[in-house]
Design a protein that fits this description.
This protein is mainly α and about 210 residues long. The chain has 9 helices and no strands.
Length: about 210
């Protein structure tokens, strides 16, 4: 390929990328992306504002109130009570940790610990030769029980990408936690938490479907 050829291919590649981005956005929405983003971001944002203005106690009260209001709204819309209660219980657990330690940064500790556990979980399955993404896809019947080697290699790459993503979360959030940077922790959690996970889920789903 000549230099002119490569330059002429760029608009074509961009034209192909636009539909791909549109499909990815549709996949995120189809998986309840907007709802999950609101559920994840609202309690954290409310906690941050309450903490900066009034301290740990009012921040916890504000986060719990926001989570409860969201839960009530979700239940009225007909969302799964189990999913709604799990989300509410998570905020309650984060808040209890803040009250127990007396530190605002404790609100974000479960997120960091969870990311570290997932990093190890995804990485360990690579070592064992059974990529976690494959096990999950087989469990939800996206992949068959018997699978060929090219598909296994594909899931190794996908599992490695997930392990890397969780590791990046830890590498960014843990130093902020150690430095007691509450605002940066909140912003990092809101940007790196559900948004990145939803994009990763949608991308993984599209990639697995592509044969």
């Amino acid at each position: 390929m000549t230099f002119d050829d490569s330059r002429s291919a760029t608009p074509h590649d961009s034209a192909r990328a636009r539909p791909a981005a549109r499909v990815l956005g549709q996949a995120v929405i189809a998986h309840g992306g907007v709802r999950h983003l609101v559920d994840a971001v609202t309690p954290v944002a409310v906690f941050l504002v309450g903490y900066q203005l009034f301290g740990t106690g009012p921040a916890v009260a504000a986060a719990l109130t926001a989570a409860a209001l969201l839960a009530g709204w979700r239940l009225r819309r007909g969302d799964s009570p189990k999913v709604v209660m799990v989300a509410l219980a998570a905020v309650a657990a984060y808040s209890a940790l803040v009250l127990f330690t007396g530190e605002g940064r404790a609100f974000f500790l479960p997120e960091i610990v969870g990311c570290a556990v997932l990093t190890v979980a995804f990485g360990a399955t690579l070592i064992r030769g059974r990529p976690l993404s494959l096990l999950v896809c087989q469990r939800i019947r996206i992949e068959p029980a018997d699978i060929d080697q090219p598909r296994i290699r594909k899931h190794r790459r996908l599992t490695a990408a997930w392990a890397l993503m969780w590791a990046v979360h830890v590498l960014i959030l843990l130093p902020l936690y150690a430095a007691d940077q509450i605002t940066a922790l909140a912003l990092g959690t809101m940007l790196l938490g559900k948004p990145s996970v939803l994009i990763a889920v949608a991308t993984s789903w599209l990639w697995v479907r592509k044969r």
